Model the fold of this input.
Amino acid sequence: MAKHLDLGSAGESLACRELSRLGYRVTDTNVRMKMGELDIVAEEGGEMVVVEVRTRTLGRMLPPEATVGPSKIKKLIRTGTAYMASRGWEGPWRIDIAAITVSPDDKLVLEIFRDITVGLIEP
Amino acid sequence: MNAVLGVTLQGIQALRVEVEVEITGGLFVISIVGLPDASVREARERVRAALRSLGVSVRGRVAVNLAPADSPKEGALLDLPIAIGIAHAMGEIRVKRPSIFMGELALDGRVRRVRGAVPAALLARTHGLPFFVPGGNAAEVSLVKGVEAYRVDHIRDLFAHLKGDGALEPIVPGTCAEEPHEPDPDFSDIKGQAAAKRALEIAAAGHHNILMTGSPGSGKTLLARALKDILPPLSDEELMEALLVRSTVGLPMDGTRRRPFRSIHHTASTIAICGGGTNLRPGEISLAHRGVLFLDEFTEFRRDLLESLRQPLEDGFISVSRASGSVTYPARVLLVTACNPCPCGYWGDPVEPCRCSPGAIERYRRKLSGPILDRIDLYVTVPRLTPEELVQAGGEEGEGSSRVRERVVKARERQWERWSSMGFQCNAELPEKTLRKQVRLDTEGKRFLREMATRIRLSGRGVSRVLKVARTIADLAGDEDLSTMHLAEALAFREGGNLPWTS
Done:
C-alpha cells in the first residue's frame, strides 16, 4: 500500500481506539454509500455521530481539520442523511472531525471537533 | 392557544405572537418561519448558546413557527419566547399558563432590555396574561398598572420559576413622582425679554404654537429651553402616552413627569421627524408628544419637511403609510419655532443695519408657507438687549420659573374644567364652531375686534386665533369673561411685531 494510504488507515484505527476510550460506541467503519464514504459511524449520548478522520503530517500548509471544506461538509451531510435513512435512525445525529497530526517524531496526536455543522447558517 | 407567547411591534401597539416549536431527528438545525427579519433569524445562535449555558443542549431539527404567519416580526425581543418554546418542546420545562415572554438573550443566558416593553405590558394587561420582562425594562413596566409582570435578569431564574423552584419577583407597580427640579435655565436668569417671556407663558398655558424672531444672539434658543420648565407636569394619562412612544423607540425612562422637549436640528430628514423607515419607527414629533417640539432656525428646514408637519399639528397624530404597512403615531406637540427676521439677521435691529436686499428678504420669507404660519398662534419679536441691559448685574431679576408655572397650571385647570366635557384639553384645540359659540364678547369687545381686524387685515382664521389666545390670557388672569384688555394683548402677539411677512 502507498505510504499516504498507510498513514490514513493508521489514523483511522487510532481514531477508533481513542473514540471508544472517550465513550463513543463505534458501530461502523468505512461505510461506502453511493455518494461517498463515512470513515467512522459511532453512537454517543443517545445520538449517532458521523466521524470524519483526517490525518496530516505537521508542517503542511493546513492543519488536518481545516481540510474539511464546505463541499466536503455538504457531502458528509448528504452521505450521513442517506446512511441514517438506510439504518432507519430517526433521532438526532451530528458530524465530528477527528483531526490527527503526525508530529516530527512520528507520534500521532488526536483532536476531536464536535458537532461541526452547528454554527453554520446554511448547513 | 399555545402557551408560549411573544410580541412584535406594530406602530405603538404590540401584536401577540404565538411561538410554536417542533423538534424532529436529524442533523441539528433551527429554522424560523413566520416572516422573521434578520435579527429574529439570528436569534437561533443566541438561543442555542443561552440554552447551553443552562446545560440544555438542543439536538435535531428544530422548526420554530411564529404565528400569525403573515405579519412581519422584527427585533431581538423574540429571543426569550423562542428559547422558552424550544425548552418547552424538549420537555425541559412546562409552561402551564399561557404567558407573554420578551427579551433579548446574551450568549451566557442573561436577558437584555428591549424596546416595546410598555406596549407589550398593555397587551398582557388586556388579555390578563402573566408577562415576563427583562430587568432593564422593569422600571417602565412598573408604571403600567394592573399587569402581572415578572422581572427576568437571567434565563436560569425564569427556568427555575417555571419549574416551580424559585419564584421570580413580581414587579411592584410604581408611581412616577413629581420630583422638584431646578429649572435650567430659570426665567429669572433671562434678562429683559418681558414680551417673549409673557408669550411663552401664554403658549404654555393654552398650548399655542409660537414663532420667535430676533437677531442672532438675542436669546431665542435660551427662551425656548426655559419653556419646558414652566409647562405643567404630565397627567397619568399623558405620561402613559409619552411612555408608550419612548418605549417603542427604546429610549430609557427618565422617571419624571417632565414634559418631553425635543430640539431638532435643521438638517433632520422628514423620516427622522415624522417617523417611518424600513422598520417603522416613531419620529421626533411623536417623541415630543404631549411636550415641546422646538425647531430652531425654522427657515432653514427643508420646505417639504415643514409641509409634512401641517397634518399632525392639526390632528394630533401622524399616519405613516409604507409598503410594509400603515401605522398611526400620536403627535400632539407644542410647536416652538425660532428664526432670524431676514438672511443677515438684523432686520429691525435697533443698532446693526440690515444688509439684505428686498429680493433676498422676499425669498427668505417665501420659505415659510402660509399654511404652516397659519398654525402658529403667537408671534413674538425677541430684540437684542442693549449693552446697558446686558451689563447690568443683579438688579431686578423678574419672577422665577416656578411662579410662572403655578399660573400656567391654574390656567390649564380652568381650561380643563371648561372644555373636558366637550373633549378638549386646552384653548388651542378648540374648533372654530365651538369657539364662536363659547367665547362670547361684550359689545365693546366686538367693536374693538372689528376695528382692529380691519386695520391689520385679519383673516377669518386670524380672528379665531386672536380669540383663542385672548381666552388663554383671560384664563391666566383668572377672568371668566373676555375683556378688551385681553383682546388687545392677544392682538399684539398676532401682529408679530416687526415681522417682515406678517404685516
